[in-house]
């Protein structure tokens, strides 16, 4: 019997992280007159509300993308800019109990005209709103004919409202707004200065609204966030400095704790910053700073390989503390190698070397920080001093990280408390979990390991679902041990939407924002992946 069926040419589905590169390429093609997204921004959009992001693929090629999030009516219908409402392009203002679906990106490859990709993506949004009993959909629609209309002699539009009125009267034609009107959206006013990068619209947009006919607009349902369970088990290793004869002996010590954590079915284990300095005890004589870096760098390939093998064999995600590494350009960076149990290896460099690291070791700071996708969701790594810079943790949270690991190495209680207090602050202000891991003990004849002070811990936000004092678990001071605790990621979702305070949602984007260099979020931290070309200039959202 002959099977005459052919494979479907068109696929509309929820966007996935594997689509990030193709989405970035599509946006760059469609909006060549506006700056493109970084990959970090797209990852944030997908991580913050994956259910609201859709892609269209035609004959295997990604040709359409739309991004949406849930917002309260107060925010969705306020006067706002695209930057303010999207959290600078990350979609980080998503409100899990918001009663409106807000669309902030819609782009379709112009070469696919006639296949109604845009209409199909709008239908996916509408189906989502209906399924969740949302009040409706709202977005800022571009008016790309406005700039041209202000220069006309006939039917000249002086203001954005004039342009909208003339369009509705049939005196002007705007293909974008006409398309949105044809899809059941109605205009409800103009958003001025919505998107400064949109020169064709002179930065303006029309607030377009679709109201769900299945919801009573006078008494819409009150949305609540369920108190679900999304349990993750975390182990933090407080590691004793000890002399080792060689690399294999050092790795046996590390494997012991990995094995124990795996026996307890932990999902993650994190080791301290500079935990590999113990390898210097295997040298025949005490080395100076430059010689030490060269000696440690020789171990880098083997370290990555062994940690990756352990992650795979023991079925656990390993945050490999940090390791001084000489880079291809000759600079020395302090790098955390994150080895996941699927066999992949990621690298996160320390962004801010301490004055001591810069002076004695000539360590340079990295220039990129991004969330790392794991089988337990996105995570972030802030190496010691980096935890004392709030904008780094906020960047990771905007990209969707719910757990931030802080490997640290401190010699005194004062130094430890600086990291501890800042880590607790990061947990509160970002409504996420922060996990600290430090070295203890001393190691004579090894620079930077003379004395150590640590009390490793797993920190939480301070609200009703969490531990009374914001500490899920902590080790005894200055004792080698493994500290293990379960955390519920669903509690973070609940706290961000319904907590006593809602730090993420209550940010004043109309007053302040952080502008990142566009190279940040473009270069992948995954070992072995091709780097991605940076795009210059501020991002530009398209609205709708």
From TrEMBL:
Domain CN hydrolase: 232-489
Domain named N-acetyltransferase: residues: 10-213
GO molecular function, one term: acyltransferase activity, transferring groups other than amino-acyl groups
InterPro entries attached to this UniProt entry: Acyl_CoA_acyltransferase, C-N_Hydrolase, C-N_Hydrolase_sf, GNAT_dom
Database matches in Pfam families: Acetyltransf_1, CN_hydrolase
Alphabetical list of Gene3D superfamilies matching this protein: 3.40.630.30, Carbon-nitrogen hydrolase
Protein name: YhcX
């Amino acid at each position: 019997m002959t099977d005459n069926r052919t494979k479907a040419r068109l696929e509309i589905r929820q966007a996935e992280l594997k689509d990030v590169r193709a989405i970035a390429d599509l946006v760059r093609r469609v909006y060549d007159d506006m700056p493109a997204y970084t990959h970090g921004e797209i990852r944030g959009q997908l991580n913050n509300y994956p259910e609201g992001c859709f892609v269209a693929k035609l004959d295997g090629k990604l040709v359409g993308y739309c991004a949406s999030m849930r917002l309260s009516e107060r925010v969705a219908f306020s006067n706002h800019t695209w930057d303010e409402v999207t959290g600078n392009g990350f979609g980080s203002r998503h409100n899990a109990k918001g009663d409106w679906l807000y669309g902030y990106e819609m782009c379709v490859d112009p070469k696919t005209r006639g296949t109604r990709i845009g209409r199909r993506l709008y239908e996916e949004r509408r189906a989502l709103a209906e399924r969740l009993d949302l009040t409706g959909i709202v977005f800022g629609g571009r008016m790309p004919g406005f700039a041209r209309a202000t220069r006309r002699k006939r039917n000249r539009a002086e203001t954005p409202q004039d342009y909208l009125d003339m369009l509705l009267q049939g005196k002007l034609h705007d293909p974008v707004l006409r398309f949105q009107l044809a899809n059941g959206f109605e205009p409800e006013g103009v958003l001025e200065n919505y998107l400064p990068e949109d020169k064709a619209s002179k930065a303006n947009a029309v607030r377009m609204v679709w109201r769900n006919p299945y919801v009573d607009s006078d008494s819409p349902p009150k949305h609540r966030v369920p108190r679900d369970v999304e349990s993750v088990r975390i182990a933090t290793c407080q590691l004793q400095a000890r002399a080792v004869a060689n690399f294999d002996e050092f790795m046996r010590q590390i494997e012991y704790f990995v094995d124990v954590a795996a026996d307890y079915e932990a999902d993650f284990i994190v080791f301290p910053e500079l935990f590999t300095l113990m390898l210097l005890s295997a040298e025949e004589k005490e080395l100076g700073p430059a010689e030490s870096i060269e000696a440690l760098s020789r171990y880098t390939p083997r370290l990555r390989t062994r940690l990756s093998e352990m992650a795979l064999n023991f079925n656990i995600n390993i945050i490999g503390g940090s390791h001084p590494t000489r880079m291809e350009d000759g600079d020395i960076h302090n790098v955390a190698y994150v080895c996941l149990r699927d066999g992949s290896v990621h690298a996160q460099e320390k962004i801010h070397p301490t004055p001591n690291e810069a002076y004695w070791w000539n360590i340079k700071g990295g220039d990129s920080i991004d969330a790392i996708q794991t089988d337990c969701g996105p995570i972030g790594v802030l190496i010691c001093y980096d935890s004392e810079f709030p904008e780094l943790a906020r960047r990771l949270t905007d990209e969707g990280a719910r757990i931030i690991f802080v490997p640290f190495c401190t010699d005194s209680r004062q130094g430890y408390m600086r990291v501890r207090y800042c880590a607790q602050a990061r947990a509160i202000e970002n409504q996420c979990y922060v996990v600290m891991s430090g070295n203890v003990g001393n190691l004579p004849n090894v620079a930077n390991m003379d004395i150590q002070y640590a009390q490793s811990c797993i920190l939480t936000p301070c609200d009703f679902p969490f531990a009374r004092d914001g500490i899920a678990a902590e080790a005894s001071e200055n004792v080698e041990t493994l500290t293990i605790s379960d955390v519920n990621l669903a509690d973070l979702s609940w706290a961000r939407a319904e907590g006593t305070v809602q730090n993420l949602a209550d940010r004043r984007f109309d007053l302040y924002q952080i502008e990142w260099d566009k190279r940040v979020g473009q270069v992948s931290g995954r070992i072995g992946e091709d780097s991605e070309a940076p795009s210059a200039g501020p991002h530009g959202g398209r609205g709708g």
